[in-house]
Amino acid sequence: MDKSKMLLVALGQGGGNILDGILSKDKNYNSLFINSSILDISPLKNATINKNVYIYPGSGGSGRDRMKGRNLIEENRNSISETLIKYPQSEVIVILTSMAGGTGSGSLKTFIEITNKTFPNAIINLVAIMPSLSEDELSFKNTLECWNDINEVIDLINDIKFIDNNKRETYNEVNSEAASLLNLSFNIMGTHRDGSIDINDSLRINSAIGSSVILKLHDGMKDGKAALDLAIENSIFAQNNIYECDYLGINIKENSYVVKDLTKSIEVFNSTYVTYNNDFNIIILSGCEMPVEQIELIRIAYDERVNKRASRNKKRGFIVKI
């Protein structure tokens, strides 16, 4: 993808952490951090006030309140649009946000509408972070509402990558791995005698309509099918157990795997792109189905928390006999 024509936008703290990680890998991306709290921005190494940061005026955070996040962006529609106009070269806009929070989750739908109105010809892609199943009722509720918001503007979005926080022990592990894989995905291009992926191929792979998954293959495994199965099992991206996609992008080390072994269990409906490098092994499945199985697990977890709270008998006080 052409980085000069990309704009990466972080809505809220969750998206900001991953965007900061991407910029630590490569500072050549155009970036914008949007938040309701300066405290969320302060720890980030690549977010600079008056350069690539927008803080909602007069706000002190959303407190994980989606309605507050929605109201903040509604009140500042014109200001947000004017900020986006400062990036006139944007042909691909990648939005990063947590689904479980307040600022990012609550503002996502409106931000997509503003972005589409500001850049009607731009491609809008989304990276959405799902909570782990050990989180609380509010996280699940926010996520389900955010999922519904995404579906209300789904026709304005091309590619969606859902990050699954269940796959690692800590948020830092997930954020670090997500930043690394997203950067590799955006840079999947390569030139080789046995196959090349150019900028337009990369754009096609990274912006197919549907959801997508980035898989990193381990070094040293001889069996390509086993390596792919392990990568799928360990992937931090939410996915269904149906390996069908519109486009398949493969950029692997030379002499590492046999491409036919890697692809025999994947149904590709449009095109497969292959190239080689000296440093990493990644595969991207794009134009896949939405991960409805994962959102259904979150809905079940939410119902269980609600029912448990409803059955709780919380005693506040009692009379002591004297």
UniProtKB/TrEMBL annotation:
- Would the keyword ATP-binding be found if you checked this record's keyword annotation? no
Instruction: Tell me if Cell cycle is a UniProt keyword of this record.
Output: yes
Q: By its UniProt entry, which Gene3D superfamilies does this protein fall under?
A: 3.30.1330.150, Tubulin/FtsZ, GTPase domain (3.40.50.1440)
Q: Which UniProt keywords apply?
A: Cell cycle, Cell division, GTP-binding, Nucleotide-binding
* UniProt domain Tubulin/FtsZ GTPase: residue ranges: 6-157
Which InterPro entries does the protein's record reference? Tubulin/FtsZ_GTPase_sf, Tubulin_CS, Tubulin_FtsZ_GTPase
Which GO annotations describe the biological process of this protein? cell division
Give the source's domain of life in one word.
Answer: Bacteria
Entries under Pfam families matching the protein: Tubulin (PF00091)
What is the name listed in the Swiss-Prot or TrEMBL entry for this protein? Cell division protein FtsZ
